[in-house]
Amino acid sequence: MQNEVLNQRYEFVLLFDVENGNPNGDPDAGNLPRIDAETGVGLVTDVCLKRKIRNYVELAKAGEPGYEIYVREGVVLNQLNKEAFDHHPDIEVKEDKDKLEAKKREDQLKLARWMCAKYFDIRAFGAVMTTGVNCGQVRGPVQLGFARSIDPISPMEATITRMAVTNEKDAEKERTMGRKAFVPYGLYRVEGYVSAPLAQQTGFSRADLELLWTALVQMFEHDRSASRGKMSAQKLVVFEHETALGNAQAHKLFQLVQVRRKQEVSVPRSYQDYEVILGEAPQGVKIVEIL
């Protein structure tokens, strides 16, 4: 059953928080925490969260066949794509000194399927593998939106000092100064989707789905750094449909998860300053609280 390809649709809501840290710095704003300039609401990109999921899977499944990570630090992607061609020496390729590409459509699909079977993140999130060494383009069943904070955040900067210096010309200085950006506290909400029809195309299985839930809960536990402060997954709510096409619209299901600051709290500083209210699921949809 665990190896069975997914045949039900899912949506999910993850609540996570940050305390005295920078959950996702913006390089266009001096690495300050990302923020919606019009509302003051904090943002964390889907790319940032997918990176943490990839890192957790790489730790948890190190060395296991079928759970390698395609997008990782220091890797040349075309070299990984070339492995698919090396594994299928019978495939006829187009003669082009600048590109490596299969002639036949069925061979192109064969290469893409091989990449899906080998790499968890391609199987889950999809990938564009058409740069030079062409293994096709895969649309993944698992998609995330941007995370948004429940309340506006208050990004701050603290001046920090270092007793050592970097360059010889600064050797006479007693210390060097720097700045550290952080959010005192923020509770963030991210919504996600798991498509059964796309899972059928990539081979995303029930075992992969269980690993995804575990990664969402555990990903911050293995991503600690001084800049990120204390980040924690606080609640994961999953909507499980009875069918592959789904039994309710996603946006209406998301509305069933209401997060409110408690009336007596003026400045939230912990998860306990909020309350989470779950509505009743429509027919054909089951609500599962994993965390």
> Percent of residues in helical segments?
10-25%
What is the tally of beta strands? 14
CA(first)-CA(last) distance? 23 Å
Rounded mean pLDDT is 92
Rg on CA atoms, Å? 22 Å
Number of domains: 1
3D shape = flat
| Class computed from helices, strands and strand pairing | alpha+beta
| Spans of at least 5 consecutive residues with low confidence | none
Report the major sheet: 8 strands, antiparallel
Task: Explain what you see.
With 291 residues, the chain is α+β, with helices and mostly antiparallel strands. It has one domain. It has seven helices and 14 strands. Strands 1, 4, 7, 8, 9, 10, 11 and 14 form an eight-stranded antiparallel sheet that branches. A hairpin with a 6-residue loop joins strand 5 and strand 6. Helix 1 packs across helix 6.
Write the layout of secondary structure elements.
Blueprint: E1 10-21, E2 25-26, E3 32-33, E4 41-44, H1 46-60, H2 77-87, H3 105-118, H4 120-125, E5 126-129, E6 136-139, E7 142-144, E8 147-152, E9 156-162, E10 176-194, H5 196-202, H6 206-218, E11 230-241, H7 250-254, E12 257-261, E13 274-278, E14 285-289
Antiparallel strand pairs: 1-10, 1-11, 2-3, 4-8, 5-6, 7-10, 8-10, 9-10, 11-14, 12-13
